[in-house]
Design a protein that fits this description.
Strand order of the largest sheet: 1-2
Helix content: over 70%
Number of helices: 10
Radius of gyration: 25 Å
Structural class: mainly alpha
Order of helices and strands: HHEHHHEHHHHH
Distance between the termini: 45 Å
Length: 268
């Protein structure tokens, strides 16, 4: 009896050690991939810093003609270059980050799932750029005109610090780039079995409420501006949910065909 008990204890310790080593290996691999992402980010940051002057000139050409930029401290121009380099490196490194996360999760996927989810990598880059472009070309001019009208009402002269201007602009457009990643994130999490779109669909009204609150926070207080932001966010959410549901149903049908679904017990 004692030998049997000891044998079980040895087996349990061995299993626990194997599980511990399994998770340690996974964390080590994730750490290696994140370090690679950080290295690529740093290289892109340096490249973005080198080309910051050209990017600033291009952005200034697209700004309102009556907008004058000023510097209020010796480091303002440097801070603008840093912001430009950061945004540039973020745009470039985000698809690579998704690729590394895909490569990390790929061993747990079959060949078809790996092939399908790999397509999300270029899609993530396109959506991020499209989100930033939509915010910069459509929403940001509208916000800027509204703020300029407020300054005109109180008879204030507009004098913009270049560092403050870019900080405000990037703080406004960057969240839209991340929001437009919603379809890719939902599809990827659905493929991994982490996200159940049926649960998301049941809580749709709360998602709508959050999107409305977000839209009213970042737009001028008028109905047209709210609709310009809210409607695209609603459409983006619905498209993301539809794609997630479509993917989820395909996965469920495949599991049923392969006999992986646990059969339900029916009363006679």
């Amino acid at each position: 009896m004692r030998r049997l008990t000891r044998r079980r204890e040895v087996q349990d310790r061995k299993k626990n050690k194997e599980k511990e080593m399994y998770w340690i290996d996974h964390y080590a691999e994730l750490r290696r991939r994140l370090i690679r992402v950080l290295i690529v980010f740093l290289f892109c940051f340096i490249a973005g810093f080198v080309f910051s002057e050209q990017i600033v000139r291009w952005l200034k050409a697209g700004a309102p003609a009556d907008l004058d930029w000023h510097v209020f401290s010796p480091t303002d121009a440097l801070w603008v270059w840093v912001q430009i380099a950061f945004i540039t490196s973020l745009v470039v490194v985000l698809p690579y980050f998704f690729f590394e996360m895909w490569a990390f999760a790929a061993p747990g996927l079959n060949a078809r799932e790996r092939r399908v989810t790999l397509q999300y990598v270029p899609l993530s880059a396109l959506l991020f750029v499209f989100g930033i472009g939509f915010a910069y070309c459509v929403l940001f001019p509208m916000i800027l005109r509204f703020l300029q009208s407020l300054a005109a009402r109180i008879g204030a002269n507009e004098v913009y610090g270049v560092a403050q201007y870019f900080k405000f602009m990037f703080g406004f457009i960057l969240p839209f780039g991340l929001l437009f990643e919603m379809p890719v994130v939902m599809l990827f999490l659905t493929r991994l079995g982490i996200l159940n779109p049926n649960v998301v669909r049941k809580t749709r009204k709360y998602a709508y409420l959050l999107l409305v609150i977000l839209a009213t926070m970042i737009t001028p207080p008028d109905l047209i501006s709210d609709l310009v932001v809210t409607v695209p966010l609603f459409l983006l959410f619905e498209v993301s949910l539809w794609l997630s549901m479509r993917t989820y149903r395909k996965m469920e049908r495949k599991r049923l065909l392969e006999g992986q679904e646990v059969p339900e017990n029916h009363d006679a």
